[in-house]
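Lab channel / #folding
Pinned by the channel admin:
"Please post every new chain as: sequence first, then the structure tokens as a reply. Keep commentary short and put observations after the output so the thread stays searchable."

First post following the new format, from NK:
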Amino acid sequence: MLKVTEKWKVALFILLMMTVFLMSGTAKKVSADTYDVGQCRVVFANSKGVVSTQLYKSWEQIVDAGSYITLPEYSKSGYRIYWTVKYNGKTTKYKPGASVQITRNTKFCMKYYKLYTVRFYNPSGKGEFKNLRVQAIKGERITLPERSLNSDTKTAVWATKIKGTSTKKPGASVKVTGNMKFYVVVKSAPSGVKLCYNTGGVWKTITNTAGTATFPAVNMKNGDMCLGWSRKKGKSTLPNYKTGDKIPSKSGTYYMVVFKKTMDREPAQIKTLTSYDSVYFVGDSRTWGMMLSLGERCPSNVHFVYRRREGLSWLKSDGYKKLLSRMSNEPADSKKAVIFNFGVNDLNNVNKYVKYMKNISGKLKRNNSDLYYMSVNPYNSAMYAGSKSRRSEAKIASFNKTIYNKLCKGRNKRYTYINTCTGLQKYGWISTRPEDGVHDGLHYSVATYLRIYNYCINYLNRY
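Reply from TO:
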């Protein structure tokens, strides 16, 4: 064997240390991109997926799995910006500022889409209705706007040429192909029941010779809410007829009752619970929306147990257990209120709800809890873009009636009914989806959620 001299021993030692140093340096570089178990890395990049500037780098985050982040705001004149995510071959778009739940390591790529302008003109083409102007990207579909006339015998339709004979009705879907122009064409309204805009002008004429026609839901397109219908023009609250009510005549004129977004105001103050030590709101995404709306203003004795897009099956399998677990953290003698607000996602389960709510009432009451069931609150089917088969205004009314009669009525009732629905239908509500601001007809604006919350707390404080 070769004899290793002291000099070579030193050299080998130095070489070994350098190898260890380099390996540890490499490990350190890798570990800079790692994080605790249960956390996710969120990266922001340009359209090619490259983190090309310091701005993109500054947006990078490490967040807990399941938490929500707000996507960075960014704009460029003449373009619409989307953050896109590709997963399992599918690309999803999000608007800047959208709230997104992070469940895995995620890369958001910024994509630019050129905006085109769609303009709307009077019959002569000399005057543009600038308030109707729309910007959209190529291939996107827009809905032709309503145009009210100062006449209850005339109706307005749209054509791509002045006095064009090929027309489309307001509410029709049109694919954007570039910069586009539409012109009003005025026609005589057919005979029948005339349903008019809030300020006048025929929106739609309905034939009701059999007497079975019902008042329709309306999508105002701008986020305002049509609460129903009235014989009187210009009303903003207290409709005489709601969506789904039978039209009581074979002719005549009815006007939309429109609650405007500008009327949707937050309460002057958030009410404080005084009659109970704590309250638990238990429900679906509408309960989640109330919690988000309260934010840091939520009193410490107000709690939320929810699962978005769920209903009775989740309550049975997991929700009820979570409620009991949360309540177990309080002293046994504390006075509690529990408000259930389920049903909008599974309206056909109403009798199963009645049975299950009765089954769990005994244990909850023995836990020093008073039980409440909040009405399923209003929904606008014309605004909702998803499947309309599982919910309707009529189904909600039927669900609420059954819950009240079978669960919240009589001397031996198990629950007390909190009817927030009727007040909203009478005095107004606005729909805004919390995560992206879309007026979807199903979820509520912050101001509306806070009014619902205050109503509930005021109701509890009476007892």
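NK: DSSP finds eight helices and 22 strands in the chain.
TO: also worth noting, The CA atoms of residues 214 and 246 lie 4 Å apart.
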